Amino acid sequence: MKIEGSDSSDFIIEGPDNDTIDAKKGKDWIVAGPGDDYVKAGEDNDRVECGPGHDIAYGGGGLDTLIGHDGADLLYSDGTYGPRVIPHSQEGDDWLDGGPGKDILVAGDGADTLIGGEDGDAFVFRYHDPMVGTTHWYTTVKDFEPEHDRFVMDAGGFGDRDLFGANFINHSRGFPGEFVDTFYKGTAEGAHGEHVVVITDRGFASGAAAANAIDHEAAGDIIVYHDEETGGATLAYVDSANHANAFAHADNLEDMWDLNSLTAANFVFI
């Protein structure tokens, strides 16, 4: 069933069908219900509650809350959908909660919060510095589990389904969906140009400090380090010699020892 909202604030509740919902503008509250649903929340501050089934939901401009349910859900922070079809909307600080199931959560261009929930989830990043020109911050991942979750970097020009604005550099083992080609985990002094470096011997106050501590880093590399100021693990993107910008933070990897559980398979490029 196809349902369209208005440009005012709508409250949309749907039943067990496979629905296509376009809420349009306004501060909307959408309850998709059971079934495999496709939801576009549109502009303004919206709330989308998916039901059981394999759902796809897009936020849009504003501060959105997207909540998955049982099933493998695909949640987009902003309104981007398809391979380079619609430009990403203005930045909004969104909350995405996948719930049970193997979910894909796509961070937008604001300071988003992502919760994968149970099962193996993929946390997808398009922008290595999503808020350039305003206040740089990062996406917060609340429950990254190294044994079955993935950080996924969308590399510009890699594969045939780039999200709009993808600007990571491809460092996969060869094909979209494969993990990083060179990986290092250990002391800062032992890193020598690997494309993903996990530093396990000390913490840092910034990505730049972490980049300065390793050798032969190059633009496009990713450094994971223990954040001395906030705790947890921070992911930073190297943009120039001895400098890197944070783009993601895993809150639940609280101790430096937790970084030892990360492997090359946790870092995927598409």
Automatic annotation (TrEMBL):
It holds the Pfam family HemolysinCabind. Keywords: Plasmid, Secreted. Transmembrane segments: none annotated. It is found in: Secreted. PROSITE patterns: HEMOLYSIN_CALCIUM. The keyword Repeat does not apply. Gene3D superfamilies: Serralysin-like metalloprotease, C-terminal (2.150.10.10). The keyword Secreted applies. PANTHER family: S-LAYER PROTEIN. This is Calcium-binding protein. It comes from Rhizobium indigoferae.
